[in-house]
């Protein structure tokens, strides 16, 4: 391919820099530069390997994880995206952690089409924020669709406290019918 010789030389140079970098941050940064070079040249496989090399240097390298997530998302490799989000969820705190777990639940529900795993993932969100409106709404909907009335009532009662007006009345009515 055009320009491959220049790319190869640049890749070798950056690889050598990674070997002589003085600290892990420097070595990880060089691997990320190599990954970016691969991405710019349309080589997601090479980029993936370089990001993985950066993670070998520093397993908590969020920039490398972001890069891997972007590649997996572009390739619609949803299980890999879920794995990366789970790894990021462990590294994050508070709101970012909750959002990582919510993204996992969304992927299981919308991309992978597994409502049971999606429900488990939404419950994980509630472990960190027991008033998370989206998690409660999705758990209520999944329980209702799946006929899991115990879960429907449990999460519906909590979610109803966050609702107002006709939306709340409608949910409370459905909860009442589930008791019958």
SSE blueprint:
Layout lengths: L3 H17 L3 H17 L3 H14 L4 H13 L3 H14 L2 H18 L3 H14 L4 H14 L2 H12 L4 H15 L1
Q: Can you describe what's shown?
A:
Helix content is 82%, strand content 0%. It has 180 residues and is mostly helical. The chain is built from ten helices and no strands. The model has no long low-confidence stretch (mean pLDDT 89). 29% of the residues are buried. The longest helix has 18 residues, at 94-111.
The count of helical stretches stands at 10
Strand content: under 5%
Helix content, binned percent: over 70%
Question: Which whole number gives the mean pLDDT?
Answer: 89
Report the order of strands and helices.
HHHHHHHHHH
Distance, first to last CA: 69 Å
> Could you give the count of β-strands?
0
Structural class: mainly alpha
Q: Main β-sheet, in a few words?
A: none
Rg over CA atoms: 22 Å
Overall 3D form: elongated
Structural descriptors:
180 residues; 10 helices; 0% strand; elongated
């Amino acid at each position: 391919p055009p320009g491959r010789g220049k790319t190869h030389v640049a890749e070798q140079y950056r690889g050598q820099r990674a070997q002589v970098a003085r600290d892990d941050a420097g070595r990880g940064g060089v691997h990320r530069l190599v990954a970016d070079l691969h991405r710019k040249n349309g080589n997601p496989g090479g980029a993936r390997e370089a990001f993985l090399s950066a993670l070998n240097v520093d397993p908590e390298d969020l920039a490398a994880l972001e890069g891997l997530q972007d590649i997996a998302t572009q390739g619609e490799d949803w299980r890999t995206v879920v794995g990366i989000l789970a790894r990021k969820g462990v590294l994050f705190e508070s709101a970012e952690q909750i959002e990582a777990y919510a993204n996992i639940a969304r992927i299981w529900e919308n991309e992978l089409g597994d409502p049971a795993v999606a429900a488990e993932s939404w419950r994980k969100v509630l472990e960190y924020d027991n008033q998370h409106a989206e998690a409660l709404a999705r758990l209520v909907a999944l329980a209702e669709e799946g006929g899991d009335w115990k879960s429907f009532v449990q999460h519906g009662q909590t979610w109803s406290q966050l609702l107002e007006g006709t939306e709340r009345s409608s949910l409370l009515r459905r909860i009442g019918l589930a008791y019958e």
